[in-house]
Amino acid sequence: MSAITLKNIVKEYGDGYAAVNDVSLDIADGEFVILVGPSGCGKSTLLRMIVGLEDITSGELRIDDDLVNDKAPRDRDLAMVFQNYALYPHLTVFENIAFPLRLTKGALSDDEIDARVRRASTLLELDEHLDRKPANLSGGQRQRVAMGRAIVREARAFLFDEPLSNLDAKLRGQMRTEIARMQRTLGTTTVYVTHDQTEALTLGDRVAVLRRGVLQQVASPRSLYEQPVNLFVAGFIGSPPMNFLPGTVGESSISTPFGDLPLTDRLRSAVDGREIVIVGIRPDAFHDVDESDVPDEAVRFEAEIDVTEWLGSELYAYVPFTSHDDVAAKLEELDRDLDGEGMRTQLVVSLDAMSTLTDGDDATLWFDPASAHVFDPETGDNLTRDAERASKLDEHGAKARKRAIERAREKAERGEASVAVPSAG
Amino acid sequence: MLTTKQKVWWALGTVAVLVYALFPVAAIFATSFKPSSELTSGTFLPSSPTLSNYESILAGDAQELFLSSLRNSIGISVISTVLASILATLAAYAIARLDFPGKKLVLMTSLAVSIFPVISIVTPLFNLWRTIGLYDTWPGLIIPYMSLTLPISIWTLTAFFRQIPWELEQAAQVDGATTYQAFRRAIVPLAAPGVFTTALIAFFIAWNDFVYGISLTSTSAARPVPAALAFFTGSSQFEEPTGAISAAAVVVTIPVVVLVLLFQRQIVSGLTQGAVKG
């Protein structure tokens, strides 16, 4: 187990295109870090640079204190799970898992190899499949074999490259939990690449959000969700995504297509003389007047519901609006960055599942202005970000991680690590 | 599903093709069992089958000529196949996997080499070989045979290697393998069916060659079977050696048939499938 340190890492291709630009990141021993971003943001390239399959143009990559920039993958002692699993089709499951051990050439006896493979296969519930070939396994089983091959080596860190993207939704949920449990049990430093923000939020101790090769924010999932640094992070994290409304700053309020936010001290200092801002409000901050107690400070507005989506646990309602010209361009650019289709601008509202609203209904909704973020339309910076609160959330996350690792080590010392067998489908 | 009518047509077509392809083989097979008196009788089947022709090439007059040429054929074909397979495997791997200047040139050159008619090269080669002392030696045939077998091997293997997922090799490297180990333990087992098929094709090309065999040899030191057949003589100058030639032709056909029958599954899968799915 090791710490990984990235210092001003740059990846530039022959044509001068910087796929990864000046990324610095400290990954602590035992930490689970997620690299997340839309396609083409450089997250996979960054991971492949860490493992050594991609050259580093400039910057320093250290594992513990060793500079490994120019080391071959085999000398870095990292284990990686590939997106397509990359299992060796001619080898049985047992030999696939044993493959890295066989390469150590005599350092391990056959008995030792057998014992270690069996320990890994028990942990991953692959015992009954050891003699089968990968072609005869289901997607989830292949995924577990790939993980087995990674954990059997007791490498310095695990690297995952979108490991769940080839699985169907149900299995993805199960495997996500498995990976989290495995990482907590083993306490191994893990770097995990995904484009799925749900995976990012659920798995990560810390999440690094990348956009066009540039690191936007590294923070605990809670801090990322509550206190995003800019429009991009706010729009990327959260599902359905945060609503961005054009806001015109007046004497005593910011007026949006959906009601006016009174200029409290917090908002006044944030706006700081700007005339136009972008107001960001999460879908779950909205409520139906008929179905909840409305606090005094709430902002109410009337809306004609265009489409509703009932999901059992909640109800999404969509309300179209026309965006302000000054911010439309910025929002369109953001949408492109987020792999969006640049469709209509609409407000997404997440309501209680018991709500009886249907398509075409008129509704009165409210939201708490304290939950609104205000962004600069030029730079995209979050003007209302509470740095103090953010660092408190990060501290909380770090503490939780430390406790989890300590618990895992205590368990391992008591010899229970392999008893905590996960169940997978 | 095929209708009855279609089935009949397919059967007829298949039979026609089989007769067309196999009748000469059957004729030679029948002839090889005829005594010399019957060679010109005009009947298809020998009236009194005899093994005398086989005796003459394996134990009789023609023994020395035939057995030495058989040894030459086997040795030269096997060596040129092995060399071509090894070289083509390495070359095709490099072409499919690595980025180096002149990659296209290598492919194009090997294609160009295989386009030249053998007969146009053989005369200059004859002169060259005599000058440098390769005339009538094993290497003197192995080298030109490789010019026939290498291009096709490189082309088929390159196509085959391109279908093997790149990720497997990277996975092996991350798992702790050197470049060579990754090639040896992750790629070669997957490529083996393709290499095997290519080697068989290369072997047949070398085994069947006649032009080089007759032009670049003069004695039994290196003369392969197809060329040696032309030197068979009858027991007197008035007797044609047709029976002995037929027997020899049957003997050299046997290894080819046996190889194909033994490995037909690998050949078919190697030629058609190639895809390696994890």
Automatic annotation (TrEMBL), chain A:
SMART domains: AAA. This is Maltose/maltodextrin transport ATP-binding protein MalK. SUPFAM superfamilies: MOP-like, P-loop containing nucleoside triphosphate hydrolases. CDD domains: ABC_MalK_N. One of its GO terms (molecular function) is ATP hydrolysis activity. Residues 378-425 are annotated as: Disordered. It comes from Serinibacter arcticus. GO terms for biological process: carbohydrate transport. PANTHER family: MALTODEXTRIN IMPORT ATP-BINDING PROTEIN MSMX, TREHALOSE IMPORT ATP-BINDING PROTEIN SUGC. Keywords: ATP-binding, Cell membrane, Membrane, Nucleotide-binding, Translocase, Transport. NCBIfam families: PRK11650.1. Residues 383-416 have a biased composition (Basic and acidic residues). GO terms for cellular component: ATP-binding cassette (ABC) transporter complex, substrate-binding subunit-containing. The keyword Amino-acid biosynthesis does not apply. Coiled coil: none annotated. Residues 4-237 form the ABC transporter domain. It holds the Pfam family ABC_tran.
Automatic annotation (TrEMBL), chain B:
It is a multi-pass membrane protein. One of its GO terms (cellular component) is plasma membrane. Its main location: membrane. Residues 70-263 form the ABC transmembrane type-1 domain. GO terms for biological process: transmembrane transport. CDD domains: TM_PBP2. The chain crosses the membrane at residues 9-30, 74-93, 105-129, 141-161, 182-207, 244-263. Belongs to the binding-protein-dependent transport system permease family. This is Binding-protein-dependent transport systems inner membrane component. It comes from Serinibacter arcticus.
